[in-house]
Amino acid sequence: MKCPICGHTAIPEDMTTCPQCRVELPKAHKPPTQIKVTQEVGTVAGEVTGVEIGKVTGDVTVESTVNQIEAKIVQGDYVDRKTIVLLGQDGLEQIAKMLVKLQGADKQTLQNLGTQTVPENVSHQIEEVVAAQKEVAEKGVSTTPQATYRLGMLAAYNRDYNTALDYFHQATQTDPEYSDAFEAISWLQQSLAMHDLQSQNYTAAKEKLDEARRAAERTDPLDPNALTQRGYIAKTLAQIAEAMNDQANKQKYYQEAARLFRHVVQLDLGNAGAHNGLGNIEDALGNIDAAITCYNQAIELMPKYTAAYHDLAIAFENKMKTDPTHSNDWCRKALEAWQKTYELAPNDPGFSADYIVTIGQRISWLKQKCGKGGGDD
Description:
By secondary structure, the protein is mainly α. Among the domains are: 1-28; 300-377. It is 65% helix and 4% strand. The protein is built from 15 helices and three strands. It has a three-stranded mixed sheet with strand order 2-1-3. Helix 11 (272-284) runs parallel beside helix 13 (306-322). Mean pLDDT is 83; it is low at 27-60.
């Protein structure tokens, strides 16, 4: 650098004053960060503007750049789509893989919609990754089914369920044997249908469940978890039929669900979800004692199974009504099950904060009721 006043040359760029005349030197222009990304298919070079991802010099691998992006996310920042597009398809896939792992975006995300809090910077980052993928796709670059599946998981985590379904469908179209993607469609549509069911939008719920069922049939027929999912779809279809006073379909779907759950138990005696599902069926058919047995089996297999304690509490309350002679005993059992549910629920994404408050209110009511000798509402 040269002093503009005295003309002194060879001044180091990090100096702020001229060593000869002591005048303050003007700040040197800082060029935009340049990244040179080496991929298997060749070399991609370009300038990154509008985002600072650290000091980068020389050749940088996709992996090292993805690590820098991960660091920015951890710090509460995010990078724009221009950077991601620059990294190419390999970089895009690695970023999606990193985000899925970092945020824990797995199948639980599809089963418990809207229960997780999505940090604002993570939400923006997912949106930028999705936008980058679409831009890359417009250039004719295909995305692997695995990457498309991960993008679907990220979209679902970000509560963009339509985009998530689009990605899962793309994954199955690219690979018709991609069981995980079919299972993802099944879980997501099942969960969305449950929301419709709660809103009494039975037509919309049934449409979603029909697709969930078709997708579930494309999963591994020997996978106990996939079969359990089929059982829960059938159970929900039975609930819709019951709400619509369709007795024939109610019986048909409950029988189908029971058959599937029993088959799972034969394949995997330790499958707590199947035992709990059987309990739900027995309860719905009025076989409360059998339901209680199933719920207790599920809890024995999984001592922190929140849903099983929840369902057991409801079964005990039903016994308060059907066995009034021992109502106070059933009341105390219900209270104990609700208290365990209340203890576990904060760590279970399937239970919202509002519903946990409702459980607390139920506990307060039962404490008064049990002290008075039980009885009906």
